[in-house]
Amino acid sequence: MKFDADQLSVMLSETGVRDGPLHKRVSGGLRILIERGELPARSILPSERSLAIALCVSRTTVVTAYQELQEEGRIERRRGSGTRVRPPAFDDRETVSALALAGSDTSSSFLDGPLATLDLSTAALPGLPIVAEVAAGLTGADYAALVAQHHGYHPRGILPLRQRLAHWYTEAGIPTSEDEILITGGAQQALELITNGCLQPGDDVVVERPTYRGALEVFARSGCRLCEVPCDRSGVDVSALDALASARVPRLCYLQSAVHNPLGTVLSDDRRLRLRQLLRRHPSLIVVDDTSLAGTLFEEEAPPPGFAAPEAPDRVIVIGSMSKLFWGGLRLGWIRASTRVISRLARMKGRLDFGTSLVSQQIGLRLLEYVPEARATRRVQLTRGLTDLTGLLGDLLPDWTWDDPRGGPSLWVRLPHGDATHLAPMALRFGVAILPGAVFSADSTTKDYLRLPYALPRDVLTAGVQRLAAAWHAYSRHEAADIDLHSVTT
């Protein structure tokens, strides 16, 4: 397994090592990744020069770090074959497959804790107070009723919640029955179920550029071949999708219809209609990720959830979740699809966990009565945060640009030059963690972007952007020095 410099740079940033001399930070981060198995035995590490460029440090810093790890017996360096992770002497077999261990993923910031004093790398929203109020309102009688449901295993989800969600879709113009709803442990589990149930290694999967980072990781683990189509302020470019589907006949297309992560855009009515027309011409599955419940939209009137295609009911699958609107800690999501598809996915889910927590489902059922209030609260919270963030960026980083989002918890920002993957380790030295845009595309072509959250207190945003501005100026000087050095050596 070979790791390129940019990939390893992101992995190192997520170890949280930020104390001591630079070479100690590099060696310390690599040591952690090797000990965890994230860099499996015999993995090939990048050259000193390429890693130095990605980390915005001198080549000497990386050479010293590599030498330290070589002396410890953690890596081996041979002329002509590069630098590799040394297998342990007692047993060179991995307990868990290397594919499962290697790399950086969405869960890293939650697994390893905060990466820096100020964390601008995650756009997870804080829970709303109404969640605690509803949870506290469950009585002993409510719990007794749950326990009285014999074994308590409901792979499809409890009937009242499925009926309520089906009613919500029907009211929105998509006739739905409770048998067309499957409750899951969050949207991520929903996506895993769909991927495992509908895809095989080697299948072509179309995604937007950029798109949700977690989806890219799920599809990559499944061994699929990812194809990208552009996404703009109106959503996915349907003409480009039509052309690609005609040439490649993908097995599945993964699209976002409500508030796009990370763009903050919304699929237009015209493109929503054209996607339905596209289904008539192509046999691909369409997975519509609508995890926000449109609850983070700045406008009062929400767009319809996903879309349905009566002429191809088995080929449209919609994912929903309560994480963005209410609280991620509920771990409550769902899949809306045809009865036939839901039946098969429910059987798969039953083999995994026998069903999502009944307590979370009961809380979720009651929270659905508070959707209008929750949307209003999120709207105030997010528009205020967006105003704060854009004001700070305009004052401190006036060369950075963005399109105003229509919703969501984050801003998709473009750098005037450079690579956000290389800026990230520099930002960590100034005490602020950021997430580079490369992780939101299959081919890392969005390197000149980064995603910045704004659902944070103003004092946190202020300090974060101030540190980020200092890091940007240091990075720009470093980049200029590298360019000058390269022009001399060539």
Structure description:
The protein is α/β, with parallel strands linked by helices and 490 residues long. The chain folds into three domains: 100 residues, Arc Repressor Mutant, subunit A (Orthogonal Bundle), CATH 1.10.10; 123 residues, Aspartate Aminotransferase, domain 1, CATH 3.90.1150.10; 243 residues, Aspartate Aminotransferase, domain 2 (3-Layer(aba) Sandwich). Helix content is 45%, strand content 14%. The protein has an eight-stranded mixed β-sheet, sandwiched between helices. It has a five-stranded mixed β-sheet with strand order 4-15-16-14-13, with helices on both faces. The protein has a three-stranded antiparallel β-sheet with strand order 1-3-2. β2 and β3 form a beta hairpin. α1 crosses α3, α10 packs parallel to α11 and α16 packs across α18. The radius of gyration is 24 Å and the shape is globular.
Distance between the termini: 31 Å
- Largest sheet, described in full? 8 strands, mixed
- What count of domains describes the coordinates? 3
Q: Numbering strands along the chain, what is their spatial order in the largest sheet?
A: 5-12-11-10-9-6-7-8
Number of continuous helical runs = 18
CATH class of the largest domain: Alpha Beta
Outline, from the CA principal axes?
A: globular
- Work out the number of β strands: 16
Give the averaged pLDDT, no decimals: 88
Q: Would you tell me which CATH topology of the largest domain applies?
A: Aspartate Aminotransferase, domain 2
- Measured by DSSP, the beta-strand proportion falls in 5-15%
